[in-house]
Each structure stands twice: as structure tokens, then as C-alpha cells.
Amino acid sequence: LDIFTNLGDDRGIYSSLTNIACSVGQLGNHELQGRYAERIIEAATKYDLPRLKAAGLNHLAIAYRHSDNPKAAQDSLEECIAICQKLGCVETEVLNIANLGNAFRDQGLTDQAERAYLESLNKARDNQLHKEEAFALELLSRLNLEKGFYDEAVRLGLQALVIHRKLGDNLRIASTQDYLARSYVKLNNYKSA
User: Fold this and answer.
1) Can you say whether the dihedral through the CA atoms of 104, 114, 129, 123 is positive or negative?
2) Is 0.85 surpassed by the pTM of this model?
3) pLDDT (tens digit, 9 = 90+) per residue, 22-60?
4) Euclidean distance between CA atoms 69 and 54, whole angstroms
């Protein structure tokens, strides 16, 4: 970041800020992630860079969710989605609609979460975005598990698992298998669990 700042390389500065926000978030420092996200948003607003602003809003939403402020995460994601729709960034829009569902879920707004997950799923399928399709299916599986609809959780989880395996996404495979195992246990199907 310092090198790009000294060179006056705005593109390098923005890329560095985004990468740092992502990295510190992955390391679990969501307070610092939020501070970098705010810097990203500030620069994007100042220089009218909507894609960069969407990235900053996404990181800010993650930080808000981890600091138990899901309503603020919802607000950030709604703004991010609006930007993506305006720019025609469908893949980013679909991912953030799924994340919006998570913010609703965090607030106990199950019906709104389900609507967001279904919207994400439908847009992913309409645009052949397989990774996002699998993610939406996984989230719907988890939501159905939490609602006590175990058969539906299994059905959705198995669909997600097929796609995750084709994509080789081991983290998502493990997460989906967790929801499937817990659903099978609730159905007293220990062999499948």
C-alpha cells in the first residue's frame, strides 16, 4: 500500500485496500476489515468508482455481521446490490443477494432470508452461475434444517453437494456435508449421516 501511495498509483492503492480488507477478514480481524472497508468506500465515493464502492460495501457488511450488527450489514448489502444491478454485475449481485439472506437470517427474519436465497438461486440458474447456484442451495439446505424441514434440507443439500463436487470446492463440500449429516441425524438416518 505504501509503495502505491508513494507512486500515486490509485489503482494499486484501491487493489491493495481491497486485498488487505479481504485478508484481515479471513484472519478474523473484522474490526480492522471494517476500517479498511470504510476507506475503500470513501475513496470510491470521492472518485465515483462504483465497482470499488460495491467491494467496500461487501467487506463492510462482512465486518458488521461479525460484530453482531446484522441490520447494518443488511443496509450495506442492499446498497451493494443496487450498485451491482446498475452496473450489470450479475455474478456479484447474486452473491450479495445470498449474503443479504444471511443478514436477514442473523436478524431472525427467516421468511426474508428464504426469499433472498431463492432469488439468488433463480438468478444464478438463469445466468448459469454454478458456484453461486450451489451456494444458494447450501444456504437453503441450512435454513430448512433450522426450520425443521429435514427432508427438504437433505434434498437441497444433495443438489448443492453435486455442484460443489463438480467445482472441486472442498470448503463448501464440507459445509454442505455438515448440514446433510445433521439433517440425516434428525431423520434418524444415522447410516447416511
Assistant:
1) negative
2) yes
3) 899 989 999 999 999 999 999 899 889 899 999 999 999
4) 19
